[in-house]
Amino acid sequence: MRLLQRYILIELVRTFGFLLTVLTVLLVFVGVIREASESGLGPMQIVQILPFIIPSLLPFTIPATLLLSVCVVYGRVAADHEVTAAKSAGISVMSLLFPAFLLGGVMSICSMWLTDQVIPWAVGNIQQTIAMALEDILIDRLRASHQVNDRDRGFSITVMEVRGKTLIQPCFRLAREGRGNVTIQAETATLEFDLDRQEVILHMERANVDIPGERQGYFEKEDMPFPLPNSVPPTKPRHLSISKIRGNLEDLRVGFHDRRHRQDAEMAMALLVNNPERLWQDDMQDFEYRDNIDRTLAAKLDTEIYSRMAMSMSCLVFVLLGSPFAIIQARRQFLTSFMMCFFPILVGYYPLMLLMMNQSKAGVLNPMWAMWIPNLVAMVFAILALRRVRMY
Fold first, then answer.
1. For residues 53 and 57, what is the distance between their CA atoms, to the nearest angstrom?
2. The domain containing residue 52 runs over which residues?
3. Which of 310, 319, 304, 333 is nearest to 241 (CA)?
4. What is the pLDDT of residues 149-188, one digit of tens each?
5. Which of 204, 227, 250 delimits the end of a domain?
6. pTM of full prediction above 0.85
7. Minimal CA–CA distance to 352: which of 373, 331, 376?
8. Which of 106, 134, 201, 278 is deepest in the core (most CB within 10 A)?
């Protein structure tokens, strides 16, 4: 790499690193406050989840930080007439822009890696920390007041004492509408948190069980699930890796074909025995209902895959658009150039991306091409800006 290109690349990396650190630190406090308020975390749990919140914010901060960095560096280079001097020496403007294109491409790859691998890992650790915090909170409440009541979910736990994490002589009650109340008394019990099912499983030993209409009596061991007192947010598609999303899509397709074969067999049997009323029964209508649900879910999962690719590529697109624009606006302040470039992106690019995303999730558009439309529109303006810089 030539000396001038190395100089520009070093300036870009230095500016980008500083701005990314400042912006990420500011947003980390917002993310920590949000997680703490939603989950009721204490100071120790906040410190534990802090390293995992940072990767979750980077895919959102990298594109804007890249755009600001190229506006700062290329705006200053052009304002100092270094671009004019380079062109007079026979150096192409595209050669000066190459370091920005290289950094934008690398950041696009890094952003894709973050959304596909790092964020699912970070979210899993955050949820695990929250679950452990909920366990400590529940145990501390039982140790302090010897009971926990959750009227919204209709259960209560009363204990004689708590030794470590073992409940001594617990009494568990669960209210069920129209089916009677469940009452279980045991000598000892332990708690197990299941994040996937949003449940706490109470493992009891030597328990007297009274479940109206199901079973009653004495059991050496009994497990009873009940809802989490403070629910951990369920895992969303954006918190899954692409490989897991593709696995879920394959499961949906297999389930769809299996139901379709069963429906065809049921319809054929109904017509064979001259029983057309069978076609309008509830279980036959349920096939269509399940198919619609699976189609909607499959559309959301497909959209998640291609939206990640398109949003990651926005790092390179913003650089292609911002670097020549900063040279054109050389005499202006870099913040003015940044706002003049970022404001159309804010009111045009992102709303168009959200529109394509919503239409794709609804199944109206194919996300394979719809999610790339905002990038293509931005590329048109980037090509026009690059052409002007090369000519003038």
1. 7
2. 3-134+298-391
3. 304
4. 877 667 788 888 888 878 888 888 877 766 677 888 888 8
5. 227
6. no
7. 373
8. 134
